[in-house]
User: Fold this.
Amino acid sequence: MIAPVRFLYNLLFPVAVLLMLPSFLVRMIRRGKYRHKFGQRFGIYSPGVREKIADTGRIWIHAVSVGEVNIALKLIQALRDADSSLAFVLSTTTSTGFKLAASRKSTWLEPIYNPLDFLPVARRAVRLIKPRALILVEAEVWPNVVCEARRLGAKAILVNARLSPRSEKRFRAARLIAAPLFNQLDALCLQEPEDLARWTALGVKREKLHVTGSIKFDDSASAPRPVRNFRPVLDLLGIPPNAPVLLGGSTFDGEEEILARVFLEIRKSRPDLFLILVPRHQERGDSVALNLERMGLKVARRTRLETSIKPDVLLVDTTGELASWYHCATVVFIGKSLCDRGGQNPAEPITAGAPVIFGPHMRNFASLVQGLLRTQAAIEIRDEATLQAAVESLLSAPETRSAMVKRGIQCLEIHRGATARTISLLRENAFS
Assistant:
């Protein structure tokens, strides 16, 4: 069944690429970092990179962006701890993901941009790398990369498998195509017990499915990761230690303005309130700062702190600091949840001790969100007005905030040990 499905996919893929090309070029221009190592997206590598990734026997791990790269790096470190002879190629799709992966570059870890899943490109990349195993993180299963890797004898495993409601609906509608593609995988590591029924309903064979928990939330359920102390930055800006802080994490276009308006309204009765905004894409810093200043706000930027005037808002225009900034927050709004972009990770602020509020679009974390809402460990809002009401309510009720965080941490307990369980399955199924 996979042969006709793949034939159809390769027939339609170039058409889809052409249709998406204009939006891709716009993003490349707006976010210039898309030009970085652009040839790698077509399987074209410099001699130095070719020499490293062609080192026979490397494990190829693909992770889309920062969140998935963090999962991949955690897996890589755990696998290396168990076997120091292992070497890896870590591919990523976004420039921010590549930057994070490159920060861990070594003789046994080479970061690359994921090749386009156009058959000639995918085949060139796979034949160059000749992976010992192909590990896909969370969501992206590229048919040509998977099939070409398996053709060379590599096992293909999806870890931390994420199935959003939107994706599930699409896969159900195309079950005759989706099922053969997913069954090409040797194993799928699921995040929740409830996911078993959802994946089997798509036609995935039961013996391929394993509930391991979410690696993304494993740290949250066990020992906390080391964090940077950013309290001195707030002290430098003149923000009192007891001042309440509203933080918007991984916000998307438009959400910063909504939070700013909410902040301005609440500050009429809470003049000591301070706002911290951490946009999803740091390169939006200039435009976000300009919009905030047009609203009459005094803005301090993380990359260029100005201490002569006490700011109303701190704009964190850096990468990789969000988890630590959560420890400075009184209340957290989860970004990409009011603009229908799928939401961001609600576990990090919970484990930092901050209650979370998010919009109705949290499909990327659907299973966890359902548990948080069911146990009243988070608040879902619909719009700007309900966001303001939720923030005001939490700011005035420290006991409620504490209880929400406690219930949230309990929701994360199911994921304790997810990394170890995934590593065990990988060693048994991919490296045996």
